[in-house]
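Cross-posted from the bioinformatics board.
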Amino acid sequence: MTASIIDGKKIAADIKEHLKEKITALPNTPQLAIVLVGNDEPSLIYVRNKQKAAAQIGLLSKLYHLDENTSEKELLQLINNLNTDSATNGIIVQLPLPAHINTSKIINAISPLKDVDGFHPYNTGMLQNNEKPYFIAATPLGVMRLIKSVIPELSGKNVVIIGASLIVGRPLATLLLNQACTVTITHAQTKNIKELTAKADILIAACGVAKLVKADWIKENALLIDVGINREGKQLCGDIDFDDVKNKALAITPVPGGVGPMTIAMLLANTVDACLLQKSPL
Ligand code: NAD
């Protein structure tokens, strides 16, 4: 049996098409502020991709590209200005920030109502409490859509996540727990990781280690979601060894073309939601 390939590009394209129609019906165009400090190469690419996707669906994105040496105070001032600017619906700060800037301080300064990355403690806390946050982080949201395209009913499923980061592993674990899954989060210090992953109905790899997951790490007929983006020469690859697992899994997301396009689509969806949220009283 060969695993079916989950076409994240196609699912993301459908979401973007739907958003395009939604935007046309709005009285004003949603606007996303993207704050970038410095010239980190991957960040420049990610920002360019976000702006390109925004333009494709008629969403306005405005880039605030600041010098590497921008002070924390200056950055906080910009965030404050964007928080009160009525034309700005969503604010994202591209990470990582330079080392002299305290990332938490910056994220915490973004209005939760404009925090379309879903990183503000108000939003993460509400998610944790199984209440409705204004926004949920885009990558976990995208992963949930991909999982549900294969397994719509998640209650009781055994899920293992490799990676416990604030932007992927942890919010994803909460989302899955909120859907009544049994969730195990593993990380770099986890012992005998293979024994845990081999029991997963759904295995999500989000650790940034190229081709870490091999066929003997997975259960027969498992659903595999590969969040990792790693560079091997000129090629991109995920955290799962695609060729090694493809005859054992039920379905798998490719890299590229799986989770990546979904992350951008969900960020745009959050920005459209932000526009609607700010138009209607809470
Ligand atoms: P991170 O560095 O913040 O966290 C990595 C996590 O993986 C940590 O919890 C760490 O303990 C764990 N880990 C590291 N090595 C491990 C190992 N050998 N075994 C088990 N656990 C291990 O990374 P992140 O920001 O969460 O990103 C993870 C990967 O996902 C990266 O490749 C990143 O590029 C990718 N990513 C992709 C998207 C997307 O849209 N496709 C979005 C975000 C991140």
